[in-house]
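Changelog entry

Holo records now carry the ligand SMILES as an explicit input line rather than a separate metadata file. Below, a converted record for flavin-adenine dinucleotide, shown in the new format.
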Amino acid sequence: MTTTAILWLRRDLRLHDNEALSEAAAADRLLPVYVVDPRTYGDRPYGGPDSFRFGKTGPHRARFRCEALSDLRASFRERGSELVVREGPPEEVLADLATTVDADVVAMHTRPAPEEARVESSVTARLRERGVRVRRLWGHTLYHVNDLPTPYTEVSDTYTSFRKSVEREASVREQVATPSLPPLPDAVGDAVGPGDVPTPATLPGLDDETVAAARAPDPDGRGVLPFEGGESAALDRVESYVWDADRLREYKETRNGLIGEGYSSKLSPWLNEGCLSPRYVHDEVRRYEELRVKNDSTYWLLFELIWRDFFQFQVAKHGGQFFSRPGIRERHDIDWRDDDRAFDLWAHGETGIPFVDANMRELNETGYMSNRGRQNAASFLANNLRIDWRRGAAYFETQLVDYEPCSNYGNWAYIAGVGNDSRDRYFNVVKQARQYDARAEYVTHWLPVLEPLPPEYAHEPWRLSADEQAAHGVELGVDYPEPMLDLDASYEKLR
Ligand SMILES: Cc1cc2nc3c(=O)[nH]c(=O)nc-3n(C[C@H](O)[C@H](O)[C@H](O)COP(=O)(O)OP(=O)(O)OC[C@H]3O[C@@H](n4cnc5c(N)ncnc54)[C@H](O)[C@@H]3O)c2cc1C
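Structure line, unchanged by the conversion:
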C-alpha cells in the first residue's frame, strides 16, 4: 500500500538536520507544506483583550521569513519536489490537505512557547479526528530534550547549573542526514496547486508602513548585515564568519562589540526561523577546533548556544507563567508603570540618553541590536522607567529580525528581575556606554547629530552648559532631546 506523508514546516525552514523531514520522507509520497497563519501577523492584544496591543511581526522579520520561504521552495524544486504554501489557520488548512491527498501521517517539529504549542495542539486534534497519524519531533536545540539529564519539567532554573549538567551528562546528537525526497502525491498539480510564497505586501494584516519598511531594510547601509532569509544564506554566513573571515578564534573578546558584522556570529535570525540547525553550528565549531584552533572563544559560542537551549527548556517547564508580568519568580511587589508617552520615547529612540537611543534606532531601522545594546535598552525601560517589561519585550517581538519567544521573553524577564536570576539586575547605561563605546563611535553612528561633541559628552550631552552646546553646535531640546529623566536619581531609587 502506498503511504503518503505531509511535512508541516514551521520555524524549521531547512533541509539539513531536519528530523521531521527525514521522518516524512520515509513515506512513498511526500507533500511539504508551509501555512501562513494570520494570527501571527497584524495588531494583536498582549495577554488578553484588556491588555496593550502590539504588532506581532514587524517589517524585518516579515521580509526575512518571505525570503526564507522562497529559498526553501527553490531547494525543494531542485530536488524534484515542491513547497506548497497556503494561508489560513494551520489546523484547518492541514486537515483539508490531509483529506485531499489522503495522507496517512503529518510530521512536524514541536515548539515549547504557548502560542505555537496551542496551534500545534489544535492541528494534532483535528488530524487525529480524521484518522491521520501525527509525528511530533523535537529539533531546534543543541541538546535534544530526551537527552537532558533530568526530565525537562525538572531542569534547573539557574543557567550555570543547567549548563554544567548538560555539559557533564549529555551529548549533542549527530545531525540527521538530508533524505532524498519521495514524489509528490498524485493530487498535486490538479487538486493541489503550489500557492504563492508570500511577500511582505501579501502577508495578512501588515499595514502600509510595515510593508514599505520591509521593502527597504537598512536603506543607508549602517546595519551590521543585510540578513537575507533562507537556508542558503545561513550556510553562507557560517562559512564566512567561521572560515573565510576566521572570526571564531576571537569571538569571546569581540562579542560585546556594537558596530559591523564581525564582532559576533549574527546567526540568530537563521537559528530562530530554523534556517540553521544549532547542531550544524556545533559541528562546524568542532571542525574548526580540529583544523584551526581550539580556545576559549570556540567554546564560548557553544556556551551561548546553551543559553538559547536554557530558555527553550525553561519555557517548556514553566509555560505561560514565563510571559506573565510577575514571571516565574511571582514578583507581585513591583509597581510597574503604564506610561504611553515614556514608552513611545523609548521605542522611537528619543529618550535623550544617547546609548539607549542609538540602540533603539538601530533596532527600528534594521531589526537587529547587539546583545550589549539589548541588555541596556531593556534595563532602561524595565528598571529606570519601571514600565511593564512585557511592553518592551512585545516591542522587541515586533521589531527583531531574530525574535524568538523563549529567548526574548526569557532575557527580558531576567533583566526585569522576574525571571531566571536570584538578584535584581540593572545596567548603568552611561557606565556601559563609556566602557563599550569609549570613543562614542557607536552612538554617533546612529545619532550623527552628536558627532561634533567630544566622546565623553556624546554619552552625556546634558552635562554641557548652554554655552558649550552652542560652541559645539548641538542644542539640547532642538537638535537632540533633553534626557527624559534624571538618570542619577533613577539609579538612587534602584540601589
Ligand atoms: C532583552 C533581550 C532580548 C533578546 N531577544 C532575543 C531574541 O528574541 N532572539 C534571540 O535569538 N536572542 C535574543 N537575545 C539574546 C542575544 O542578544 C542574541 O541572541 C544575540 O545578540 C544575537 O546575535 P548573534 O547571533 O551575533 O549572537 P552571538 O553572540 O554570536 O551568539 C551565538 C548564538 O547564541 C545564542 N545566544 C547568545 N546570547 C544569548 C542569550 N542571552 N539568550 C539566548 N540565546 C543567546 C543566539 O542563538 C546567538 O545567535 C536577547 C537578549 C536580550 C538581552
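Spot-checked after migration. The CA atoms of residues 116 and 141 lie 16 Å apart. The chain has a mean pLDDT of 96.
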